[in-house]
Design a protein that fits this description.
Chain lengths: 298, 258
């Protein structure tokens, strides 16, 4: 059991409230998992300043401030950083690939939780309520966000086992369920040279989707391919810089509900996460059908 | 109720709670309604108060601001009426006996699961496993029900105004399921003896579920079920489905499958 919540803002007037709305959804979702939590925030100008790339890491060998000093010395330009508890956030006016390489060189052993120009992934182990405070989630702004609370089943309670999984630029996946054949697919991807950060089944799904996006598929196509290849139980929420998508397995026993208004699209494991959203009483609310990809573009 | 609950008693005109027993309303009088606001008191307090009612109690209750809370009005066994003013969460009216529960909103997973008797009416959509394993009573869903509606039903009657999702009436054992819209894939998979009536399209039938003849007794029971649910659909427009009974006994040709 895990909890999923996501919000895709259509009315730009709501962008200032993204974090507070997402926090209320995440804290309700805590009842479906208290091992770990994480959020992916798109378009927060303090986390991902305009004109910069942003890389987030966990398991850093040094503090966020020391990490930023090392990156400054690496010549990626003036570095800004955020200490978000188990996650450190670094932004610099350099191409994403350059900043990513600098982070890997400067912070040996650190695990990247996101990279790109519009997404920051903050995650860690612990109670979702406490983590939301560490993430300063209530103050976050932006055009979409995803959140996850974890009850660990397929891998240990570690920060690298926490969701969201972001393994391609500005991509993000959260998962409720368990993939049955992830070890087989992991070996196939490893044979292609793909490197994994964790033992977690969801990371295999995220790597699979990232590979197909990199090969030119759109999100809808990548998720249809995932449905063909993966066995097991899954409700997935997948976001990219410009899209927000939901898919469930053929049995669809893991819950999911979608609500849509002119101002926003929201997805959650349960209705009660949505109960505080403005205008929810007149939203179009439905449960996604099995193996149907629902995607929204901005 | 004692210290368990903090509801207030209000005098509410019967017309505002849609009292079908029109005697009091016709006389222009009022009835007592116990109001329980789930933003100021817990669902546990509500359920404890409902469970503490004396035998035969037929009081009326209104639950405000349910906001998708789980287990509202679960485990009732008195002939009370509970009106839930908004969306309910998981297992609403689960294990119900004797009570009437009206949900003026959507219902989460497992509404009226394992109901024994009484009536549960969802004036909206229902999530998965509506009426799961229920032995008796009537579950009415005005909107759509999602996957596994009536899974392992054991005698309940379920009337759905809209569509039902995949694997509805899976392993159904007894009772009647009426679907006024369409049914999803694998309807009635591994069904034992429930009777299924579907007005619209069936995406696919599950193992051992087949279309069957509508005889006069089926039209009569369907007419009665639709009437009980307050619907005016034409019974003649429905198709009956049920068990082909080919899975009842072990067939030696299948021995290699074991």
């Amino acid at each position: 059991m895990c909890g999923i919540a996501g919000l895709h803002v259509r009315d730009s007037a709501l962008q200032a409230q993204l974090g507070s709305l997402l926090q209320s959804m995440l804290c309700k979702a805590a009842e479906r998992g208290t091992d770990a939590a994480g959020v992916g925030i798109y378009g927060d100008t303090s986390l991902t300043p305009a004109g910069t790339s942003t890389v987030c890491v966990i398991e850093s060998p040094v503090s966020a401030a020391e990490g930023a000093a090392r990156l400054d010395a690496a010549g990626v330009g003036p570095v800004t950083f955020r200490d978000a508890g188990q996650t450190s956030v670094f932004s610099a006016p350099a191409p994403t690939a350059q900043l990513e390489a600098a982070v890997r060189a400067a912070l040996p052993g650190a695990v990247l939780t996101s990279r790109g120009s519009s997404l920051a992934v903050l995650k860690g182990t612990g109670h979702p309520d406490a983590l939301a405070s560490t993430f300063r989630l209530a103050d976050a702004t932006g055009y979409q966000g995803v959140a996850h609370t974890r009850m660990a089943t397929e891998s240990a309670v570690t920060s690298t086992g926490s969701h969201p999984y972001s393994v391609g630029p500005d991509q993000c996946m959260v998962h409720n369920g368990s993939f049955a054949n992830h070890a087989t697919i992991r070996r196939e991807l490893q044979a292609e040279g793909i490197v994994f950060d964790s033992e977690n089944d969801t990371e295999v799904g995220a790597r699979f989707v990232a590979k197909h996006l990199a090969e030119g598929a759109d999100v809808e196509k990548a998720l249809r391919l995932l449905c063909e290849r993966f066995d097991g139980f899954y409700t997935l929420l997948v976001a990219t810089e410009n899209s927000f998508a939901v898919v469930r397995d053929a049995i669809a026993c893991k819950p999911a509900i979608i609500a849509e208004t002119d101002a926003w699209v929201a997805m959650a494991s349960e209705y009660r996460y949505l109960a505080g959203l403005p205008g929810v009483e007149s939203a179009r609310i439905f449960e996604p059908e099995p193996e149907v990809v629902y995607a929204w573009e901005r | 109720m004692g210290a368990l609950s903090t509801p207030v008693i209000e005098d509410a005109p019967t017309s505002t709670i849609n009292d079908d027993d029109a005697g009091a309303a016709a006389a222009g009088s009022t009835v007592d309604v116990v109001v329980h606001d789930l933003r100021t008191a817990t669902v546990r307090e509500l359920n404890a108060a409902l469970h503490a009612l004396p035998e035969g109690d037929s009081s009326r209750w209104r639950v405000l601001n349910p906001d998708g809370t789980h287990s509202i009005a679960a485990g009732l066994d008195r002939p009370v009426t509970v009106e839930i003013e908004g969306p309910a969460g998981y297992y609403c009216a689960g294990m119900n006996q004797h009570a009437t529960v009206e949900i003026h909103g959507s219902a989460g997973v497992g509404v009226a699961e394992n109901m024994m008797s009484g009536r549960v009416h969802v004036h909206g959509d229902a999530s998965q496993s509506a009426g799961a394993t229920a032995h008796g009573g009537l579950l009415v869903i005005d909107g759509n029900a999602s996957a596994r509606c009536g899974i392992s039903m054991k005698g309940v009657d379920i009337v759905v105004g809209g569509n039902v999702g995949h694997m509805s009436a899976f392993m159904a054992q007894a009772g009647r399921l009426v679907v006024c819209g369409d049914a999803g894939d694998a309807l009635g998979d591994s069904i034992y003896e429930a009777r299924l009536y579907v007005k619209g399209r069936v995406a696919s039938l599950g193992a051992d579920c087949v279309a069957k003849e509508m005889r006069p007794e089926h039209l009569a029971e369907l007419t009665e079920l639709l009437r009980a649910a307050g619907r005016d659909d034409d019974p003649a427009a429905f198709t009956r489905y049920g068990s082909a009974r080919t899975l009842y006994n072990f067939h030696v040709d299948n021995a290699s499958a074991y």
